[in-house]
Each structure stands twice: as C-alpha cells, then as structure tokens.
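Sequence in, structure out. Go.
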Amino acid sequence: MTRDYKTDLTEANAKLAQLLNDRERLNIEIAKLQFRVAALMTLTEDEEVDQKVGMTLGGLTDAVLTAFRSIFPSAMTPIEAKERLRRLGFPIDHYKNPMAAMHTVISRLYDARKIAPKRTDKGETGFVYVERRFGGPPVTLET
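Output:
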C-alpha cells in the first residue's frame, strides 16, 4: 500500500490556511468586542477592566495592534489610536511621552506590514490593519 504524500500535503496546507484565516477573523472580532466591553464598562462605571475575561492587552505593541484591529477595516490616525487605547483601558498615560511611543510602535507595525497607510473617513492620513490571508492572493489596499 502506497500513500500519496503530495495529496496529503495539499490537503494539510489547505486545512492550515483555512484555520489561519479563521484565527485572523477571530482576532479582529475579539478586538472589536474588547473595545465594546471597555466602552460598556465605562458607561456602567466599572473600572476593573483588567480583571474581565479577554481584556488583557499585553504590551504597547500588542495593544496598538488590538486598537487597529478593533476599527478594521477603517483607518485611524496615531492620535486616534492613542485615544482608543485609553478607552480600552490601556495605561498609555504612564509613558513619559505617549505620542513618541505610539509613533515608534506604529512605525514598527508598518515596517512589519501589519498596518498600512490609508485615508481616514475624515480625509486625514492614517493607518489601517492589514488583514492577513493565507493560501490565496495577497490582500491589496486602496489608498
């Protein structure tokens, strides 16, 4: 009995691509729900953001990426991203120069192709999260 490893590999690659795409969609959905939970907590005056399920944002880079995912597919400026972090309950004001830290992280995320420049709804230059697609053609953004 011989096995067709090429067929197995093709099937495994297709399954892996599907699961990675599912995870990407879930990451975006989680970020949007994290923002909604943070907003609802503010409205209910519940200040225990970090004790809620799924509200741990990690370090600044992960938090900024979450902020961009939470507004996907829209774009936002670095100032809007900083405000979004604040609303998510991230302690951005603990940084000596929050905007310098934001610009550094945004530059690194841009270099890593996790965000891309795009006009905001107000016509300003901002950035948008780049949704990754696995097993298909690369995603292109309209500017």
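Check: The mean pLDDT is 84. The radius of gyration is 18 Å.
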